[in-house]
Amino acid sequence: MSILQANLVLTFKRLLRLPGFWVPTILFPAMLYAFFGAQTAGIGPAANYAVASFAVYAVLGVAFFQFGVSIAEDRQSAFAVWQRSLPARPFASWAARLCAALVFAVAAVALVLVTARLVGGLRMEPGTQARLLATCLFLAIPATFMGTALGYLASRHSVVAVANLIFLPLAYLGGLWVPPPALPSQINTISQWTPTRHMGEVAWATVAGRLPPQTSVMALLTFTIAFIALTWLAYRRDRRSRFG
Amino acid sequence: MDATTSRTAMVPAINARDLGKRFGAIEALADLSLELRRGEALGLIGTNGAGKTTALTLLQGLRRADTGNAEIFGHPAGSVEARRHIGITPQNADFPEQMSPREVLTYAAAHFDRPKPVDELVAAFGLERLIDRRMGGFSGGELRRVALALAFVGNPELVFADEPTAGLDTGGQDMFKAYARSYVDNGGSLLLTSHHWDEIEHICDRIVMIDRGRRLLEGTLDDIRHKAGRNRISFTVPAKASLPPWAREHFQRSGNRWSAISAESDALARRLIADLPALQELHIEPLDLKETVAQMQMERTI
User: Which of A1, A176, B220, B288 lies in disulfide reach of A53, CB 3.0 to 4.6 Å?
Assistant: First the structure.
C-alpha cells in the first residue's frame, strides 16, 4: 500500500465512521432542501434556483466541517503530532483530505439533486446538473480555504460552535435559504459583501444557463486570495506555537 | 563492506550538540549534548519538568532547537531521511476512536520500506483480543500497548520511547522490557525516558540524568554506583538478641531486618561479625538506581 493510499484509507474510514461528520454534511443539505426548497419545485426557474442554493450550502458544509473542524481537532491531537514523525511529506495527508472533501461534496450535491427529483419532481437537464456539479467543485476552492483558515484559528473545543456560528449566518446572508430579493433590504446590502452571496450568484447563473456575473467571479477570487493569506498566517502561527 | 557502508555504520544513531530550548522565560533545555551509539539503549531520567520530553521532541524533529543541532544517523533531526530510521511511542495515546489497532498499524507500516508484520507485534504486545476492535472504548493501558506496537512497526533502527509504560499493568511492563531489550540486543538503538527506574536499569546500557534542562549525571549504572560509593548492608538477629549501641546508631529496622546505606559497608560488616555473635543473613548489595541517585542528591554530589 502506498503512503497516499494509506492516507486515503485512514481519512475515509475515520470520516465514514463518524456520523457526527457525515450526517450534517451529506444528509442535512438534502433534508433542508426537502423541508424548505422542494415547495418551489413547480415554479420554473425558482425550482432550479433552490436546488443550486442548497448545492452551494452542501459544499460550504463540507468545507467547514471537513476542513475547519477536522483541522482544528487534528492540531491539538497527539496522534496528528505522532503522524509528523512518519517519513512522509505532508502532501499525502493533504491530498487525502482534499480527495475526501471532493467526494463528500459531490455526494452531498448529488443527494440534493436526487432529493429534488424524488421529492420535488424537479426536471433539470442532465447537462445542467453536470454543470452545476462542476460549478460546485469550483466553488469548493474558496470554501475550502475558508474552512482551512477556521481550522487553524479555532481551538478543538470551540471549533464546532464557531463553525456553526459562521456557517449558518453566512448561508442565510448569502441568500442560500431565502432568495436575495426576498431578504430585508439591509440584509440584502450586507449579503453582497459575503462570499456565499457570490457563490450563490455563480451557481444560480449556471442553472439559468447564463455566464457567471463577472463581479461575483472577481469577488470570489478576492475572497480566495484573502482566505489563502489568512490560512497562511494562521498556519505559521500554529506551527510556531506547536513545533517552533 | 565498502567505504560508504563502513562510514555509515560508524555514524551514531543520535548525535546532538549543545541543544537549547526556551519557552518564554523558562529554559527547558540548556546545552544538552547526547550521543547514542548503534545497538545501545540510553535512559534519560529526571523529575517532571526536567526537560526529558523537550529533549526528545527536539531529537525527533517535532520541535526546533533554539541552539545547537541534532542528527539522526547523520541526517538532520526532523528530515524525512532521519524519520525513515525512527519509531516513536506517542506519550499521549489519543488514537482515532473510529479505527482499530490493526488499521492504525497498517497505516503506519505503509510509510516504511521493510515494516514488521502486524501479527508479530500483536503477539509481542498482547494485542490479540484488541487488534480488530475500534479503539474508542479502550482503557489507557490498552491504548498504551498499541502505542508501543506503533513504535516498532516500521522496523526502525532507533526507537524513542517516552514514558512508554505509564499506565500499563505489570504484565505489559514486563512485555515491553523483554521486547525492548531484545530489540537492542539485535542491534536496535533505544532512547528511553521513564519514571519506572527499574525499567531503565533493566533495559539501558547508559543513563543520562537531567534537571531543569541541564545534564547532572551520565554513565553506566555501575559508573553511577561507583561514583555514589555506597552499598546497602543488612542483617537479621533473633528476637531476643540486642544490638550494640554503635549498631543502633548506624542501622534502621524494618520488620525483623536491620539495614543501612554506607560507604564503608565492608568495615561495618567486619565490626558486626565481631560484636554481634547472633548475627544472621548478613547481606551487602549495591543500591538500585533510585536509591543511588537519591543518595547522591542528599549528599549533594550531583
Answer: A176
Per-residue pLDDT band for A241 (boundaries 50, 70, 90) equals confident
CA-based nearest residue to A98, from A71, A126, A127: A71
Q: Which residue of B has its CA nearest to A15?
A: B98
- How does the average pLDDT of chain B come out, rounded? 91
Nearest CA in chain B to A70: B96
Best B98, B100, B150 member to test A by mutation, with max A CBs in 10 Å, is B98
The total number of structural domains that make up chain B = 2
Kindly indicate the confidence band of residue A120, based on its pLDDT and cuts at 50, 70 and 90. Answer: confident
* CB proximity under 8 Å: B 71-90 to A: 80-81, 83-84, 86, 88, 90
Of B212, B210, B201, which Cα lies nearest the Cα of B288?
Answer: B201
Specify if B83 maps to a domain: yes
Interval A19-45: pLDDT, tens? 888 888 899 999 999 998 888 766 677
State the cell numbers at B225: 554506583
Interface A-B, measured as beta-carbon pairs within 8 A, has a size of: 69
CATH code of residue B197: 3.40.50.300
Q: Is the pLDDT of residue B256 over 50?
A: yes
* Residue B135 touches partner A, C-beta closer than 8 Å: no
Cβ B99–A86 below 8 Å, yes or no? no
Please report whether residue B136 resides in a domain: yes
The nearest CA of chain A is from the CA of B78 a distance in Å of 8
pTM: 0.85
Instruction: Give yes or no for a contact between B184 and B191, defined as CB atoms under 8 angstroms apart.
Output: no
In degrees rounded to 5, what are phi and psi of residue B247? -70, -35
Asked if the Cβ–Cβ distance from A78 to B62 is below 8 Å, we say no
* Closest Cα in chain B to A14: B98
Q: Which residues of A touch B134 (CB under 8 A)?
A: 17
pLDDT tens digits for range B79-103: 999 999 999 997 787 899 999 999 9
| Cα–Cα nearest to B29, from B15, B50, B14 | B50
Q: ipTM of the assembly? A: 0.85
For residue B2, what pLDDT is reported? 52
Are B110 and A243 a contacting pair at CB < 8 A? no
Residue with cell 517535532: B62
Claim to verify: residue B106 and residue B169 sit in the same structural domain: yes
**Do B267 and B147 fall into the same domain?**
no
Q: Residue B64 and residue A244: Cβ atoms within 8 Å?
A: yes
The bridge status of strand B41-45 relative to strand B206-211 is parallel
Domain interval for residue B260? 231-286
Residue B216 has pLDDT above 50, yes or no: yes
Mean pLDDT of A127-145: 94
Residues recorded for chain B: 302
Q: Phi-psi bin for B210: left (phi > 0), alpha (psi -120 to 50), beta? A: beta
Statement to judge: residues B135 and B242 lie in one domain: no
